[in-house]
């Protein structure tokens, strides 16, 4: 499924989320136990494509369940979940203790990462791929301390640099900023709404740089970056150059492998969460969460994510599953 399909589906789901809801229930049908009802999710763009895939597969097994999903950022997902506006919030950052204190019940589901994105036609593209971006450089870059690519890369280039960030409260910004010990509100740059918005801004600006969740950088079918996008490699050891073992960005398959084995740093790699208001008890919601942590994991890699280790999944299941 392409990114454009996800975005179109998001709009349709947003339009269709209003209206009354019937109580979720489990009934005995001719073929055994049947689930009926509606589950509503909102929140992180980072988790949106994965949630859509889980919903599609879950509905094949339980056609009596309707699942409505909308984006809006991790902040919205957390707020909607705690306030009871939705059954499940999608959150792409660590859940804060103060959120848990007021009812947030987080369940880790899959892992992904935020990567610095540039335009593939950037005039400094070859040097960018050679030098990469270190934590210290990123900290200065999103503090408006560089005005040109030459200043960032240590060259004589006077090519201007346009820096983008997110305008919505989101896990991508919080996680990316956390890589260099900052918070989203500390990032100084041109603010754009949503993961798709930042990707589109960079695609249109040859001297732009932003950051995106990997599902909005790589095409699921080809495993290569979407047209116009490239990833600025991270200089993990901070030595001012990208060594062969630090370059794994040509395909999402390579990047996912690097995240899995720890070559890509955490943050900006991180767990993604589904959050409910208190321990989930609704039987349909519980069934969906159990599916996500069991059979749903097999769709993680092909959708552009990293499934969690079995031990981690069992720990998450034990938090809410009735024994």
Would you identify the regions where 5 or more consecutive residues have pLDDT less than 50?
A: 1-22
Q: Which CATH architecture of the largest domain is right?
A: 3-Layer(aba) Sandwich
Main pleated-sheet profile: 11 strands, mixed
Number of domains: 2
Molecular shape = elongated
Strand content: 15-25%
Q: What's the pLDDT, averaged over the residues?
A: 91
Total number of β-strand segments? 11
CATH superfamily of the largest domain: Periplasmic binding protein-like II
Q: What is the CATH C-level name of the largest domain?
A: Alpha Beta
Please name the CATH topology of the largest domain. Answer: D-Maltodextrin-Binding Protein, domain 2
Q: Which class best fits the helix and strand makeup?
A: alpha/beta
Rounded to the nearest angstrom, the distance between the terminal CA atoms is 37 Å
Calculate Rg over CA atoms.
20 Å
- Our count of helices gives 12
**Which sequence of SSEs, written as H and E, runs from N to C?**
HEEHEHEHEHHHEHEHEEHEHEH
Helix percentage? 25-40%
Structural summary, described in words:
- By secondary structure, the protein is an alpha/beta fold.
- The chain folds into two domains: about 5-110 and about 270-320, Periplasmic binding protein-like II (D-Maltodextrin-Binding Protein, domain 2); about 115-260, D-Maltodextrin-Binding Protein, domain 2 (3-Layer(aba) Sandwich), CATH 3.40.190.
- The chain has helices at about 5-15, 50-60, 75-85, 95-100, 125-130, 135-140, 150-155, 170-180, 195-205, 250-260, 285-290, 310-320, and strands at about 25-30, 30-45, 65-70, 90, 105-120, 160-165, 190, 210-215, 230, 270-275, 305.
- Strands 1, 2, 3, 4, 5, 6, 7, 8, 9, 10 and 11 form an eleven-stranded mixed beta sheet that branches.
- α8 links the parallel β6 and β7 (about 190).
- The two termini are about 35 Å apart.
- The model is unreliable at about 1-20 (pLDDT under 50).
